[in-house]
Write a structure and sequence with these properties.
Elements: H1 3-11, H2 13-21, E1 26-29, E2 33-36, H3 39-47, E3 52-53, H4 60-68, H5 78-88, H6 94-117, E4 122-123, H7 124-140, H8 149-160, H9 171-194, H10 200-206, H11 211-225, H12 227-242, H13 246-251, H14 256-267, E5 273-277, E6 281-283, E7 286-288, E8 293-296, H15 298-303, H16 333-348, E9 353-360, E10 369-376
Parallel strand pairs: 2-8
Antiparallel strand pairs: 1-2, 3-5, 4-10, 5-8, 6-7, 9-10
Bound molecules: protoporphyrin IX containing FE (HEM).
Protein name: Cytochrome P450
Family: Belongs to the cytochrome P450 family.
InterPro entries: Cyt_P450_B, Cyt_P450_CS, Cyt_P450_sf
């Protein structure tokens, strides 16, 4: 079995089989919801905020609002959502993001490249976890020494509670999640209250966010911004090695951007998006009712275009569907891309690598490797 397949199955053994078995572009799956696997129909749902919302039964709001409050972006819709996104915009402008990525990652990626070139066997997952934590830590105002593997494991444990068949957390899970996030936001609150432009929470205050909005944003960045990258970069490396493209990319930097896009397409780190039907509508031939849950299987739509191939780069036709579409399009995409580019360049500086060992993570929300050890050939 292909490793990409193993990674998906290890994360969601039951749901992944059910989703993969769907033979129609839109299908009502008992106990799960209305499943959409066609890219055009899926994009249509994302763009139609009149009938499909992130707030409501079965959508993201049911999961995250009890833990992080109502101002999280990913559990909001309408004018409030647009206002908060507009306020946060400057934090994700290309110049701010590039400076943030360079400030947090320059030393880490330089050391990674050096060790690989010297022949050391390196666990890409551990390296990316460190890099993602450094960057998110800076974004949310958490001191570097707090960003250890233990904290990362506790954050992953929260997302690990998420199962497609269970749209809500249990009260005990809510309590655990609140404790972990409370620990993180304790630092962000101090930075917010101090204000100024030296820390991101301080800057959020300058940008006009209330304390609740700023802490919601901090929580959202931690929950969605670390695991997606810790999933993606090692999976990209594995795809590059397994497909034989790694040395070609190392020799020809013009292939790196298409390869990153193709990697995002075939892996789709955030494999599904959820919406709640808020007004009777139709998705293709299937009529949907208010209160129904829609599962947008982005990974299936993306993979339908064929295997990874940076030379044809069919990903370029997808308008970055792996980051969503419409009003909820990934706010952190520029930051994610900045980090992906920096770490990928460091890895490619080794010229060519082999995979020494790897293991897929079990029972996680975002499919990933738990280890991926590589070494220069
Ligand atoms: C490879 C990495 C990433 C992928 C594949 C990814 C994917 C996505 C997707 C698909 C959505 C839309 C979900 C929906 O419409 O239901 C989203 C939203 C979001 N992402 Fe990302 N993401 C990544 C990295 C990041 C990072 C690094 C951050 C922040 C630091 C971030 C912050 C956000 C936020 C705040 C939203 C919510 C936006 C809104 O609802 O308005 N993401 N992401």
């Amino acid at each position: 079995m292909l490793w990409e397949e193993r990674v998906m199955r290890a994360a969601h053994p039951v749901a992944y089989r059910a989703l993969k078995a769907a033979k129609k572009p839109v299908l009502r799956v008992p106990g799960l919801g209305v499943l959409v696997t066609n890219a055009t129909l899926l994009r249509g749902v994302l763009m139609d905020t009149e009938h499909f919302s992130k707030k409501g039964p079965g959508a993201s709001s049911e999961l995250w609002t009890p833990i992080l409050g109502p101002s999280l972006l990913l559990n909001m819709d309408g004018a409030d959502h647009m206002t908060l996104r507009r306020k946060l915009g400057p934090l994700f402008s290309p110049s701010y993001v590039d400076a943030l990525a360079a400030a947090s990652l320059t030393d880490a990626v330089a050391s990674l490249g050096e060790r690989l070139r010297a022949g050391e066997a390196v666990d890409v997952v551990a390296e990316v976890r460190r890099c993602a934590s450094l960057m998110i830590g800076q974004l949310v105002g958490v001191p570097v020494e707090m960003l250890d593997d233990d904290l990362f494991a506790r954050v992953s444990a929260i997302t690990g509670f998420v199962k497609l068949s269970k749209p809500r957390f249990t009260p005990a899970q809510v309590e655990i999640a609140r404790a972990v996030l409370g620990e993180l936001t304790a630092h962000s609150v101090v930075a917010y209250r101090e204000g100024g432009t030296d820390t991101v929470p301080g800057r959020m205050r300058e940008l006009g966010l209330t304390e609740d909005e700023a802490m919601g944003a901090v929580g959202a960045f931690v929950m969605v911004g670390t695991e997606t990258l810790v999933s993606y970069i090692p999976r990209l490396v594995a795809v590059l090695v397994d497909s034989g493209w790694f040395p070609q990319l190392a020799a020809d930097p013009s292939l790196v951007e298409p390869a990153i896009a193709e990697g995002l397409r075939v892996t789709t780190p955030s494999p599904v998006m959820l919406r709640s039907v808020v007004g009777a509508a139709a998705i293709g031939p299937v009529a949907v009712r208010t209160g129904e849950r829609v599962i947008l299987a982005t990974f299936a739509a993306n993979r339908a275009l064929g295997p990874f191939d940076p030379s044809t780069n069919v990903a370029s036709t997808m308008r970055q569907l792996w980051f969503g579409a419409g009003t909820h399009f990934c706010l952190g995409a520029p930051l994610a891309m900045a980090q992906i580019r920096l770490v990928t360049d460091a890895l490619l500086s080794a010229g060519d690598v082999r995979i020494v060992s790897r293991t897929a993570s079990r029972g996680v929300m975002i499919p990933s490797y738990s280890t991926l050890v590589v070494q220069k050939k």
